[in-house]
Amino acid sequence: GLSQYSSDPRTEWDLSAYSTRDQVLEAVRNLRYKGGNTFTGLALTHVLEQNLKPEAGARLEAEKLVILLTDGKSQDDANLAAQTLKNLGIEIFAIGVKNADEAELKQVASEPLELTVYNVLDFPLLGSLVGRLTQVLCTRIKEKSNKENADIPVNMGPQLSPTDLKISAVTSKSMHLTWSPPPRPPKKYRIVYYPSKGGISKEVVLDGALSSLQLSNLTSHTEYLVSVFPIYDTAVGDGLRGVTSTLPLSSPRSLRVSELSHNSMRLSWKAAQGATQYLVLCSAAPDGAED
Question: Which of 8, 76, 103, 276 is deepest in the core (most CB within 10 A)?
C-alpha cells in the first residue's frame, strides 16, 4: 500500500489493491508527485487509521511495516505519532533524502537504528538502497513471524471492534464521545483526534473498561476527525470513526450607541457567553482618521 503526504495525506492505493509485482510497479510509474508541506505526524496517523485496517487489506496475523520516505523536517510532532505505531508493534523504517533531519529520522524509526535508518543526498541515490533494504525487510519479517505469539484468527475482527460512536454535548471547545464496547473487552482504547483541514493530532489512552470520553481544549468552529481504536495484547481492532464541528464562539449582540458628544460616545451591548475580555475597535468612516 502507498500513501503520499504534504499537509493532507492521500492514499494512493491500499494493501489489497494489487496482487502482482508488475501491477505495483505500473502504479508507481503512474504516480503523480504531490508537493506541499511536511506534516509527517499527520501522515503516520493517516497510515494507522486508514491503511493498516482490515478494510484496506491489513490482516491481523500479518507483520506490519511502515517505510517513511521524506525529504524535509516535519512541521508537526512526528515522534508522538511514530511512538504510537511502535507501541502497537508496527515497525518503522525511515529514509531521508536531501534536506531530511537525521535526528528526526532516528527518533521516528524502530530499533535497531543501523537497520532502520537510511539517508541519501539526492533522489537518484535511492537506487543504491534497494538491495540492502530489501534484504533487511525480508529478514525482519521472517524473524518476527517466527516468534511465538498468540495469533488471533482473522474472522475475530468484529469481536474486537467497538460500535455505535456517538458525539454529543458539543460546545465551542469540547465534545463528549460514547461507544458500545466489543464482545471481547480490549485492554485499552486509543482515541485520536485532529482538525480535518490539517493540524497536530492528539491522542488519549483510556482503560478498556471505559466507553466514554470528554474531549476538551478544542478550537472553536473547527471540524474534527475522531477515531477510537481498541488495543489488545496481540492485535488492534478496527477503529470507529466520526466527524463533527465545534461551535463558533458566541458573539456580543445588540450594539447601542448613546451619550454622544463632540469627542466621545458610550457603547453598550449584550454580553457574549464565556467572554473574559472584549476588544473594541473604532475608526472614522469611511476613511478618515487613524483607528
Answer: 76
Integer Cα distance of 190 and 205 in angstroms: 5
- The least confident of 41-55, 113-127, 195-209, 252-266 is 195-209
The strand ranges marked E within 98-248 are 117-120, 163-168, 175-180, 188-195, 202-207, 212-215, 223-231, 240-245
- Surface-to-core class of residue 28, CB atoms within 10 Å of its CB (0-12 exposed, 13-18 middle, 19+ buried): exposed
* pLDDT band of 158, cuts 50, 70, 90: low
Global confidence as pTM: 0.56
Q: Which tens digit of pLDDT belongs to each residue from 244-275?
A: 999 998 889 999 999 999 999 999 999 988 88
Supply the range of the domain harboring residue 41.
Answer: 2-148
CA distance 22 to 38: 30
| CATH number of the domain bearing residue 221 | 2.60.40.10
Rounded to whole angstroms, the maximal C-alpha distance in the chain is: 88
- Which residue reads 474486537 in cell numbers? 160
Contact 250, 271 (CB under 8 A): no
Residue with cell 471540524: 223
Separation of alpha carbons 84 and 45, rounded Å: 9
Looking at the chain, list the stretches that DSSP marks H as alpha helix, in order from N- to C-terminal side. 21-29, 40-46, 78-87, 102-108, 113-116, 130-146
Query: Do residue 59 and residue 189 come from a single domain?
Result: no
pLDDT tens-place string over residues 1-20: 999 998 889 999 999 999 99
Q: Are residues 136 and 168 in the same domain?
A: no
Grid cell for residue 65 = 511495516
Domain of 86, CATH number, reads: 3.40.50.410
For the chain, how many structural domains are there in total?
2
Note whether 78 and 46 are same-domain residues: yes
Closest CA to 74 of 51, 100, 95, 53: 100
